[in-house]
Each structure stands twice: as structure tokens, then as C-alpha cells.
Amino acid sequence: METKKKSKAIVWISYILQGIIVLMFLMGAFMNLSQNEEAIKGAIAMGYPRETMLYLGIVQLIAIILYAIPRTVTIGAILITGWLGGAVATHVIHKDPIFNLFFPVIFGIVVWGSIWLRNNKLKALLSN
């Protein structure tokens, strides 16, 4: 099997993108875990009961921790993708403007793109 050498710039870009995702999701998880008033208002407006905030924060935190660890990055990306799918579904159910659907989709692309940039197995899987 041919091994392709990755440039340092590409590897750094992939880690920077992954770091941005980790920071964004950590912020959301901590807002849910801390029962931040802004997070509670937003969740209630979307139809989620206040009591679910802690559990949503725990799920989000677990997903992002798994995504941040190199050995579990794939399972973390799968969990984050599920989370983002739920965000898209919530926006669709509430008939939000199409613009609101773009953010979770773009985040999902960045989640997987950051891994794809440095993972030859994922590149091979997606190129077939």
C-alpha cells in the first residue's frame, strides 16, 4: 500500500479546525451544564424542557471529549454528527429559515473534514 506523506501545513490546518470545533462545542456543553439562562431560554424556545439541559450537556461533553482524543476521534465525530442532525431536525420542525440549517451542516463538514485532512483510511473510504 502506498503511503502518502502529509504536509505539516495540512496537518496543522486539520488540528486547528478540530480545535475550533472542540471550543465551540465545549462552550455549548458548559452553557447546558451550568444551566445558563440564555441556553435555557433557547432550549425552551426550541421545545426542549428545562430538565433536559443537564443531560444534553453531558451528552455533548462526552461527544466532544471523544472527538478531541486521537484514538476516539471517529466515534466522537459520529456522535457529534448525530447531535448536529438533531439540530437540523429541530430547525426543520420549527420551520426556521433555511439559513439556520446551514450552520449545523457546515459544522458537520468541518468535523469530518478536519479528520479527512490527516487520515488516509478515511480518504480511501470516501474516495471509492
Helix-strand sequence: HHHHHH
- How would you characterize the largest beta sheet? none
Structural class: mainly alpha
List the total number of helices.
6
Keywords: Membrane, Transmembrane, Transmembrane helix
Protein name: DoxX family protein
Membrane topology: Multi-pass membrane protein
Transmembrane segments: 12-33, 53-69, 76-93, 99-117
Sequence-ordered SSE layout with sheet pairings:
Blueprint: H1 8-33, H2 37-45, H3 53-68, H4 73-93, H5 98-116, H6 120-127
Characterise the protein shown here.
It is found in: Membrane. InterPro entries: DoxX (IPR032808). Keywords: Membrane, Transmembrane, Transmembrane helix. There is one protein chain. This protein is mainly alpha-helical. The chain has one domain. 77% of the residues lie in helices and 0% in strands. It is built from 6 helices and no strands. It has helices spanning 8-33, 37-45, 53-68, 73-93, 98-116, 120-127. Helix 1 (8-33) runs antiparallel to helix 3. The longest helix has 26 residues, at 8-33. It is globular. The mean pLDDT is 90.
Keywords:
128 residues; 6 helices; 77% helix; DoxX; transmembrane; DoxX family protein
Kindly summarize this structure in a few lines.
The protein is 77% helix and 0% strand. It is an all-alpha fold and 128 residues long. The protein has one domain (8-127).
